[in-house]
Amino acid sequence: MTADGIPEVMQRTSLDPEDWDSFRSLAHRALDDMIDYLRTVRDRPVWQSPSSASRTALSSPLPRRGSELSEVYETFKEHILPYPTGNIHPRFWGWVMGGGTLAGLLADLLASAMNCHVSGYDQSATLVEKQVISWLAEMLELPSHASGLLVSGGTVANFLGVTVARNTRTGADIRSNGVQPKLHGQLTVYGSTATHGWAGRCCDLLGLGERAFRRVSVDKRHRVQINEMRELIRSDRERGYKPFCIVGNAGTVATGATDDLNALADLAQSENLWFHIDGAFGALAKLSPKYCFIVAGLERADSVAFDLHKWGYMQYETGVVLVRNAQSHKDAFSFAPSYLETFRGGIAVEPTEFASRGIQLSRGFRALRVWMNLATYGSDRIGRAIEQNIDDAQYLRERIEQEGALQLLGPAEMNVVCFRYWRAELTDFQLDELNREILVRLQESGLAVPSNARVSGCFALRVAHTNHRTRRDDFDVVLKAVLAIGNELAESTGQKEGTAWA
Ligand SMILES: *Cc1c(COP(=O)(O)O)cnc(C)c1O
Fold first, then answer.
1. Residue 326 pairs with which residues in a beta bridge?
2. Ligand 1 center to 277 CA (angstroms)
3. Is 405 helix (H, G, I), strand (E, B) or coil?
4. How far, in Å, from the CA of 34 to the mean position of ligand 1?
5. Gap between the Cα atoms of 423 and 130, Å rounded
6. Is the pLDDT of residue 502 over 50?
7. How far, rounded to the nearest angstrom, does the alpha carbon of residue 187 sit from its chain's CA centroid?
8. Residues 289-312: pLDDT tens digits?
9. Whose CA is nearest to atom 2 of ligand 1?
């Protein structure tokens, strides 16, 4: 029974609060807390492993009966909030992650309130997504009539781009008949050995098999060898394969290298292949007048995939695919079942406009995040932050080159710097073990989070700089720590006479 004597089962259920004012004060407090949390992020460890109390708290049984939102919020503050990935922190440079922005924080709150379903429909969210797609095309110097879609991230964006390529360039009706190698030959895609792991998964999911991604070796600067690619395409054709797509890299994941995109565009043109670019982070170097030369030729792509949650500094999940030919894009995914009929008026004007550019039907309003970020900061200011990241990465590279006990690995031409602690008397195997230990100690100390890569066979500490909160002296602090930990470990390695420590 409830207080007014009505049996609980007979009351109507709503998930809205009875007391809106107490929700209001909690919500204001939460927003204040989050603003303080971000403002003071530098004072906390970059990363820490969740406590055992928090692990226990987060493995509780299903709450059949709920609690007060204010209590749930306290649990969040105690057990969830203190243990983020750490990419919001100024000394996080692991993998390739963005730190988010305050405009994005607000945008996510506002979009959540509107909770729009953005498969299409006559609504502001549709206009906003179209608006940002044309802004993004302009930023990358693609034609303003290019099509595009916001997606969860680079993996999905790349997948969509290569799917359009498959459906456009194989001369077969794959949407109806599926992949039929006996009829049209084994379909193949070409890219460098430095291409991100999405490529193999994509070929797998497209029904081509992982081996359909044909890997071409790279030069000293980790750029794809164009002649080798041309030769492989030719010999594959002789074998009866059906090449349909070249993948260019604008910023490889391990070392930040960028292929010669103009040369790849020429090759794609002369071989009549689709030219797709994985510009997950590197594409946005276009916004820096000083460094845009690195990605020259990007504007010639048939499709480009990139992330705004990396070098666009926006919150997760914000990936983008742009496709030069809007009709090809639509033909690859068009979807119009009778229950989603298009009307000339009412709300259901093109209800599948965006659903026909990808595989999601129900879609959220991530476009608001992009719109608010671009409208607030402007593409010039984002470009300056990107330029600053590259300048600072180059500063880090120079500092490493000046230290006898540090060794630069890989080209470090853009915003990714790979290096290791180095001593002449240690073997490569010992150096691998030692640098692995440096990495773990650095992360566990809470001082900084770089990640790792294998560069020319060596284990490397890897700084991928897409962080708008970093100051230049943050790199000094980290190099000092690497040297201190390295010296200590090298000494103990020496004492153990060449045996690796446990
Ligand atoms: C991060 C990354 C991807 C994958 O993007 P997600 O957003 O993580 O799905 C693809 N390629 C490169 C070069 C990347 O850095």
1. none
2. 12
3. coil
4. 28
5. 55
6. no
7. 27
8. 999 999 999 999 999 999 999 999
9. 280
